[in-house]
């Protein structure tokens, strides 16, 4: 938790907040984890559902339901839902199954993707997020950054001060989520959730602060999947038990190796598992995915090259000062996954399907490799 640097706070207020912070630390020591109460840091347009899909509510801000941030705490079921089951937005539904491969979990839902897609948009709005982008063709929904306000001390003072407290304190952390849908061979829909995390840290000279990317927490992804199960009609206790008790697929853990001097990434997994893991790694890297073709093993992405391989998110200093936009435009590539003996090979292709071996291709694979290891 961080106090914003601009507002002034009275001594009495500070003393009270410090006392509440101590209570929060005590709860952590006794195993009572912090709850999730996301609030978007971006003001978005009303939720927009493509005209060929069922319309969802146009309210982008809902109150986040009661719950906890960690999987273990969620599984304990310490906080019951305040809403009556009869009043849920969606009716009770069966056919939501939890799958697991190492630390990676996903859902298999007995609904077609076109029916499930608008429900997922409503779900994220219900969690306090605005939608940054949606691509029904690629089966992708991406939220904007949001702050977990539950990491700010709760109690009588927060209730009394309300919006004043929100202006004074900042958690110093942000999260944004990507949801990806895929159809399986049986007409069901696979749902994957990944996220990016950022933390505000002091600059090296100590004169200011900057935002840096933190490590993705697979436990948080699992907790959000559990919330999604409840939203789709699964009992809360059952959802927590299934998420926690999901048995990993048999087989060795994924290991990868970026070939020295070559632009190819070897994954010691069969095509099915490699395709799944590469897809989640692309989501976690926040590449812009335009389409995918599983039969051909291709993810169609847009990528703006930098010397680090990370996606450029902000304009230059001059651009911000004078209102100009970054002139660089993302290029189109394919991330290709192919069976190679007992494993799989990941390469980068141009728009015509020709393999690329330049520095840009190696940087793309380096970012994918980094995010692949985060799902093990």
Descriptive report:
- It is a single chain.
- By secondary structure, this protein is of the alpha+beta class.
- The chain folds into 2 domains: 1-6 and 36-250, no CATH class; 252-376, 2-Layer Sandwich (TATA-Binding Protein).
- Helix content is 30%, strand content 26%.
- It is built from 10 helices and 17 strands.
- The protein has helices at residues 11-29, 71-76, 113-126, 156-161, 163-168, 218-231, 236-245, 271-285, 317-322, 359-373; strands at residues 2-3, 38-40, 96-101, 104-109, 131-135, 140-143, 146-148, 169-170, 173-183, 189-202, 209-214, 256-258, 264-267, 288-293, 298-303, 331-340, 343-349.
- The chain is globular.
Shape: globular
Return residue spans where pLDDT drops below 50 for at least 5 consecutive residues: 6-34, 45-69, 78-92, 308-322
What's the SSE pattern? EHEHEEHEEEHHEEEEHHEEHEEHEEH
Helix content: 25-40%
Number of strands: 17
Structural class: alpha+beta
Biggest sheet layout:
7 strands, antiparallel
The number of helical segments is 10
Radius of gyration equals 22 Å
Domains counted in the coordinates: how many? Answer: 2
Mean pLDDT: 74
Task: Please tag this protein with its features.
TATA-Binding Protein, 2 domains, 6-stranded antiparallel beta sheet, alpha+beta, 26% strand, 376 residues, single chain, 7-stranded antiparallel beta sheet
Summarize this structure briefly.
With about 375 residues, the chain is an alpha+beta fold. About 30% of the residues lie in helices and about 25% in strands.
């Amino acid at each position: 938790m961080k106090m914003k640097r601009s507002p002034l706070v009275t001594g009495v207020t500070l003393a009270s907040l410090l006392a509440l912070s101590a209570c929060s630390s005590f709860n952590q020591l006794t195993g009572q984890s912090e709850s999730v109460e996301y609030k978007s840091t971006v003001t978005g347009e009303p939720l927009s559902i493509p005209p060929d899909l069922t319309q969802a509510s146009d309210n982008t801000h809902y109150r986040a339901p009661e719950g906890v941030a960690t999987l273990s705490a969620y599984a304990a079921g310490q906080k019951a839902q305040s809403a009556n089951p009869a009043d849920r937005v969606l009716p009770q539904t069966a056919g939501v199954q939890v799958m697991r491969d190492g630390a990676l979990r996903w859902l298999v839902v007995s609904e077609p993707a076109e029916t499930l897609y608008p429900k997922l948009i409503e779900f994220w709005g219900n969690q306090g997020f605005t939608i940054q982008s949606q691509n029904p063709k690629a089966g992708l929904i991406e939220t904007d950054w949001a702050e977990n306000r539950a990491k700010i001390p709760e109690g009588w003072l927060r209730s009394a001060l309300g919006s004043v407290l929100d202006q004074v304190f900042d958690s110093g952390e942000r999260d944004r989520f990507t949801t990806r849908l895929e159809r399986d061979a049986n007409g069901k829909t696979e749902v994957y959730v990944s996220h990016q995390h950022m933390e505000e840290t002091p600059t090296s000279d100590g004169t200011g602060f900057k935002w840096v990317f933190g490590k993705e927490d697979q436990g948080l992804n699992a907790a959000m999947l559990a919330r999604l199960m409840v939203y789709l009609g699964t009992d809360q206790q059952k959802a927590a038990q299934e998420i926690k008790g999901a048995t990993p697929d048999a087989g060795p853990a994924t290991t990868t190796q970026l070939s020295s001097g070559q632009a190819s990434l070897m994954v010691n997994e069969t095509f099915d598992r490699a395709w799944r893991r590469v897809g989640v790694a692309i989501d976690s890297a926040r590449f812009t995915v335009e389409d995918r073709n599983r039969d051909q093993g291709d993810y169609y992405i847009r990528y703006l090259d930098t010397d680090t391989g990370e996606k450029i998110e902000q304009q230059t200093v001059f651009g911000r000062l004078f209102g100009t936009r970054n002139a660089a435009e993302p290029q189109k590539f394919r991330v290709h996954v192919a069976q190679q003996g007992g494993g799989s090979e990941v390469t980068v292709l141009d728009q015509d399907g020709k393999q690329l071996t330049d520095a840009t291709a190696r940087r793309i694979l380096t970012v994918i490799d980094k995010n692949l290891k985060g799902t093990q």
